[in-house]
Amino acid sequence: MNYTIDGLQYANWSQKIFQQMRTGGVDAVHVTIAYHENFRETVARVEEWNRLFERYSDLIVHGRTAEDVRLAKESGRTAIIFGFQNPSPIEDDIGLVEIVHTLGARFMQLSYNNQSLLATGCYEAEDPGITRMGKEVIREMNRVGLVVDMSHSAERSTLEAAEISERPIVVTHANPFSWHAALRNKSDDVLKALAASGGMLGFSVYPHHLHAGSACTLESFCEMIARTAEVMGVDHIGLGSDLCQDQPDSVVEWMRVGRWTKQIDYGEGSADSAGFPPMPDWFEDNRHFPNIAAGLQKTGFSETEVHAIMGNNWFRFFSENFGAA
């Protein structure tokens, strides 16, 4: 069985989007349910999703395991897998790692753009690496099956996480820095460390991560994937679109600012383009995943390799890493 799986989305969820997932044949999506939320606020997000699962039970289902993804596909639905883009849901309490896993979280970034209690974000000037608490939390994440995600983390922190973690780590949504020099994109050293850990890179279609931005061509994107396969091996790559469909521009402020500053942090992009940029015309929403598959095939990937990148690699990773060690 072949799967289409997206390693990261943060859409303004609706019946329209869930139906587009079905049109695009999307079998599972890792969704962000927390950016800067504390534990209780994260529980409220879980409650909101429980209502969505009940209301749209014909389209979506909560995914906790790879088996859930298989069953979702067989029943014509999309499995929704929870993740955090910041460790704020565990606050300063390592005991909450197991609790959030019980609630369904399967990915947690050790940092967003800033320094956290665990690791350094990619926008900090200095990167002292994984903190003392970070080392302990990684061990606990390994124990329960909460995957270490370093998508927004800085270089040293990411390399140290790969070394400390006894289970594979991931970057769910980013691209190679050598292709496009965004702070969020990853060096070849990081890509090699991900592969060596047994982990995954999910390629992002978010325009700030793309060469030529919104004007990036499908050919360029797929050629980048081919070059990355040469660095990491085709078994360690997948998709992580970072699709933020139908979100108002005000959400960008929450993503970047949270509660840590009174100023607007424009981050990626300039002060006059602080909102969401237009998506490339070949990937505007979940209906367009087949475009990427066709582009990969045209670039020279075999049918087996295309299926691996489109979702089979993520499915294998879920099978091996969502449970207790």
Distance between the termini: 26 Å
CATH class: Alpha Beta
Number of helices: 11
CATH topology: TIM Barrel
- Which series of helices and strands comes N to C? EHEHEHEHEHEHEHEHEHHH
Strand content: 5-15%
- Considering DSSP H and I runs of 4 or more, what fraction of the residues is helical? 25-40%
Total strand count, please?
Answer: 9
CATH architecture: Alpha-Beta Barrel
* Mean pLDDT score: 95
Main β sheet profile? 6 strands, parallel
Low-confidence stretches: none
Structural class: alpha/beta
Total separate domains: 1
Rg over CA atoms, rounded to whole Å, is 18 Å
The shape is globular
CATH homologous superfamily name?
Answer: Metal-dependent hydrolases
Structural summary, described in words:
It is built from 11 helices and 9 strands. The chain has 325 residues and is of the alpha/beta class. The chain has one domain: TIM Barrel (Alpha-Beta Barrel), CATH 3.20.20. Strands 1, 2, 3, 4, 5 and 6 form a 6-stranded parallel β-sheet that branches. It has a 3-stranded parallel β-sheet with strand order 7-8-9. Strand 8, helix 8 and strand 9 form a beta-alpha-beta unit. Helix 6 runs parallel beside helix 7, helix 8 crosses helix 10 and helix 10 crosses helix 11. The model has no long low-confidence stretch (mean pLDDT 95).
Short note summarizing the structure:
The protein has 11 helices and 9 strands. The chain has helices spanning 15-23, 39-55, 66-74, 96-102, 132-144, 155-164, 188-196, 218-232, 250-257, 289-299, 303-321, and strands at 5-9, 28-34, 60-62, 78-84, 105-109, 147-149, 170-174, 200-203, 237-239. Strands 1, 2, 3, 4, 5 and 6 form a 6-stranded parallel sheet that branches.
